[in-house]
Amino acid sequence: MFIIKNRKIFYTLSIILLVVSIGSLFVWGLELGIDFKGGSLIEIRYTETKLDQTTIEKNLSTLATEISLGNYVLQSVGDTDYSIKSRLVSDIERQKIENAFSNNGTVKTELKKVNSIGPLIGKEAAQKAYVSIFLVILCIVLFITFAFRKVSKPVSSWKYGLMAIIALAHDVIIPTGVFSIMGHFKGYEVDTLFVTALLVIIGFSIHDTIVVYDRIRENLSDSNKLNDKKSFETIVGESVRQTFVRSINTSMTTILALFVLYFLGPEATKHFSLALIIGVFIGTYSSIFIASALLVTIEKFQKKV
Amino acid sequence: MFKRRFWAVILILLSALIGYFVYSTNWVKVVPATETVATTTISSNHKFKLGLDLNGGIELIYKADTRGIAAGDISGKMNSLKDLIERRVNMFGVSEPIIQIEKVGLVGSDSSEQLIVDLPGATNIEEAIAQVGKTYVLEFKFLKKEYENATSTEGLTLEQTFESTGLTGALLNKASLEFNGTTGEPNVALQFNKDGSDLFAKITKENVGRRLAIILDGNIKSMPVIREEITGGKASISGGFVGSAGIKEAKDLVNNLNLGALPIPIELISTQSIGASLGSEAVAASTHAGLWAFIVISLFLVLWYRLPGLLAVVSLSIYVAINLALFKLIPVTLTAAGIAGFILSLGMAVDANILIFERMKEELARGRVLADAVKEGFARAWLSIRDSNTSSIITAIILYAFSSTPVVKGFALVFGLGVLVSMFTAITASRTLLLAIKHDNAGKIMHFLFGSGAGK
User: Fold this and answer.
1) How many separate domains does chain A show?
2) Whole-number pLDDT of residue B152
3) pTM for the full model?
4) Shortest Cα–Cα distance, A45 to chain B (Å)
5) Nearest residue to A85 (alpha-carbon basis) of A121, A123, A51, A44
6) Sheet bearing B138-143, strands edge to edge
7) What pLDDT was estimated at residue B410?
8) Within the 128-157 window of chain B, which residues sit less than 8 Å (CB to CB) from chain A?
9) Are residues B298 and B439 in the same domain?
10) Are residues A266 and A136 in the same domain?
11) Same domain assignment for residues B445 and B339
12) Torsions phi, psi of B188, nearest 5?
């Protein structure tokens, strides 16, 4: 199987992606959404005519000094909408911001969306995000160790779990890295939905990896019964080949659904589906090219020691 | 063979029935309350419940200040806080408000309680905040002796000019609305409870000639001079209730004094408001996306897997029907993220079918006859289906249990349900349908139909 034979090429490719992602995370970090850092997001729609952007900007900067708004980000959304992101504003301050958009009521506006989140709740959300990612990973290792408990030769069952986790880390780090880069250049934010996307990616990738591992388990036991003395490398290679089409096709249908969601779905879930598209793609790649190959590497390593 | 076909037909009929149930009971439509028209809900028992982000509305999250409350009392007090806010919100006229208590913080010391108030269809943020969070602290305080003859107390705080009597709204038995016989102006009559009456009598007896201020939320409502001992525990707040707005204010005050003060002080930490138009846009986009996702996946399945692919589409339709019916029956509050989860699960639900088909194909390639290949393919794929779905269910459970936002909770619920239902349809629908097809003495055509991809 060329994938297992050429595993070093795929390792190199993954290591490059990982280095770029981690590098970007160190240098640029992540653009946190207001649900993690607290703050206010207000979306205004012009129902009839639109106020020209320079007036809006002028009104806002006057207001910003009046209520010491600090840094804020004004973005135009679609043809008729604007969004403004700032520190947590009070109710009265929010009305003043609305007035800045409506030029004190001379242009008709509609409050499309308000989202004000205190810093406390943001801290809480971030904490929960870490805990849930950690828990999901822990439970899955335990589950794999359990599900593959009958497999112990030549690689013991907890090592399957460990290799699956390495593949998982790979699948989580790369989309996060992409969002770090997108965050730096295009202002893409990381919010609770992004964390949800990561967790789904974890679920999906492990799902994929288990299907391949399951096949290895079955082929190992078949080979034992026949006593045909196939090498572990050959068995893993065969298993990857046998599950290859299935992995690609399942990811295909999932990615098709996600593309539809990305292009036709609501604004609110656009970045969510993008994160998932990247993650499902990377997750499929890692189950086929990395997770199983790692089993072979560890088996070779054991032989040497 | 006949038996299998019989079950296949029953299965399809049943799903069609479920589908009809889903179709015939449509969306919940909540019409926002206005000044004149009471809130109306077109009621059917089984409609999709839409979350705030799809329906439009306001969500307020409060942090309850539980300092100074014994740990054992917290949950009781939180419940009475919830009941109180529920009654306030109901007075406000929002249909189907959802009020939840949530414990925040994972362990011991820094844990706190939150109250999440969802007001579907509400649009006026200021009014909502005012209604939910009003404190209504009613106090009776003496004007300090040194200020009795002062002409102005400007620049001084209430604490500096008044002294406490210990008499507060907590000692009220009942408040009611009365109208002054001569001016017609409303006033709020107060009736103290036993303790309150005794305290009131004692205060008035010992302090004849002093000024007693009635202070509501830090505003002095009136400041009469005590002329004699008042027994019987009756007092009234008058003045300041002018015109129709005054009557409404007096009515609100009466209602809220009767409901009582908040048992725990609360602080607003998050406000979210979604305009109705944004909500309906999201519903339209989600429906659209769901439909197209289904079509695209179906096309892929039929083109790649041919006849089994077609069966997979049938089983996917059954999957959709069961899921939508469950959303209605449980009921699941659908959010944009929840629908995204469902669309995602469409892609993943196909997986079980694909696993089976691929396995079937291998068995065919090994030279088994079609009927055996189907059975064997199913049996061998089952372990993979079971194990891989278990890990997805673990993810869904953890997401549900540890998420801080309703958005993520909604997603986790839909996603978890999707995985369970997809396993169920794989075992029942896909299997029954595959076995129901006549594949004894399979000829060339049958082999083509059961082939896949570019192969013959």
Assistant:
1) 2
2) 66
3) 0.75
4) 10
5) A44
6) B162-168, B138-143, B212-216, B219-222
7) 79
8) 129
9) yes
10) yes
11) yes
12) -105, 115
A132 and A202 fall within a common domain: yes
- Answer yes or no: do B25 and B142 share one domain: no
Name the H helices within B403-443. 406-425, 431-436
Q: Would you write out chain A's pLDDT as a tens digit for each of its 305 residues? A: 678 888 889 999 999 999 999 999 999 988 888 878 888 888 888 888 888 888 888 888 888 888 888 888 888 877 788 888 888 888 788 888 888 888 887 888 888 888 888 777 777 777 877 888 888 888 888 888 888 887 767 788 888 888 888 898 999 999 999 999 999 998 888 887 888 788 788 878 888 888 888 888 888 888 888 888 888 888 999 899 888 888 888 888 888 888 988 998 887 788 889 999 999 999 989 988 898 899 889 888 888 87
Q: Look at residue B165 in the predicted model and tell me its pLDDT.
A: 79
In a domain, B51, yes or no: no
For residue B91, pLDDT over 80 is answered with: no
**Cα–Cα dist B317/B4, whole Å:** 20
Q: Are residues A150 and A180 in the same domain?
A: yes
Q: Are A9 and A16 in contact (CB under 8 A)?
A: no
Instruction: Look at A128 and B394 and tell me if their CB atoms are within 8 Å.
Output: no
Q: Specify whether A184 is located in the same domain as A259.
A: yes
CATH number at residue B193: 3.30.1360.200
For residues B396 and B348, the answer to whether their CB atoms sit within 8 Å is no
Flag whether B44 is in a domain: no
Give the domain-ending residue among A94, A117, A140. A117
Residue B61 within a domain: yes
The domain total for chain B is 3
Q: Which two tokens stand for residue B142?
A: 């003496």
Q: Which pLDDT tens digit goes with each residue over B398-411?
A: 888 877 666 777 78
Please give the interface size between A and B, counted as residue pairs whose CB atoms are below 8 Å apart. 227
The CATH number for A216's domain is: 1.20.1640.10
pLDDT at B443: 63
Taking a contact as any Cβ pair under 8 Å apart, which residues of chain A between 27 and 46 contact chain B? Answer: 35, 43, 45
CATH number for the domain that contains residue A78: 3.30.70.3400
Provide the H-helix boundaries in B260-405: 276-329, 336-365, 370-402
Q: Domain check: are B146 and B129 in the same one?
A: no
The token pair that represents A216 in the structure block:
């290895």
Domain that holds residue B235: 138-261
Please identify, among B233, B261, B289, the residue that sits at the C-terminal boundary of a domain.
B261
Identify which of B277, B238, B271 has the alpha carbon closest to the alpha carbon of residue A40: B271
pLDDT value of residue A278: 94
Q: Cβ separation of A120 and B399 shorter than 8 Å?
A: no
Q: Which residues pair with B58 in a beta bridge?
A: B119, B273
Domain boundary among A92, A117, A142: A117
Indicate whether B150 pLDDT > 80. Answer: no
In this structure, are B362 and B418 located in the same domain?
A: yes
Q: Distance, in angstroms, between B285 CA and closest chain A CA?
A: 5
Residues A143 and A248 in one domain: yes
Residue B43 pLDDT exceeds 50: no
**B-interface mutation test, from A141, A249, A252, most B Cβ less than 10 A away:** A249
Based on the domain organization, do A285 and A174 belong to the same domain? yes
Contact (CB<8Å) B383/A246: no
The answer to whether A269 and B340 have CB atoms below 8 angstroms apart is: yes
Residues A23 and A65 in one domain: no
Judged by CB atoms closer than 8 Å, whether chains meet at A113 and B293 is answered as no
Q: Nearest residue of A to residue B389 by CA position?
A: A207
C-beta separation of B201 from B230 below 8 A: yes
Q: Which domain holds residue A132?
A: 2-34+120-304
SS3 label, residue B163: strand
The residue that leads in pLDDT, A233 or B7, is A233
- Taking contacts as CB-CB distances below 8 angstroms, the residues of chain B near A124 are 104-105, 404
Q: Cβ distance B176 to B189 under 8 Å?
A: yes
Q: Report whether A183 contacts A114 (CB < 8 A).
A: no
Verify that A130 and A238 share a domain, yes or no.
yes
Which carries the bigger pLDDT value, residue B331 or residue B110?
B331
Which B-chain residues 236-265 have CB contacts (< 8 A) with chain A?
none
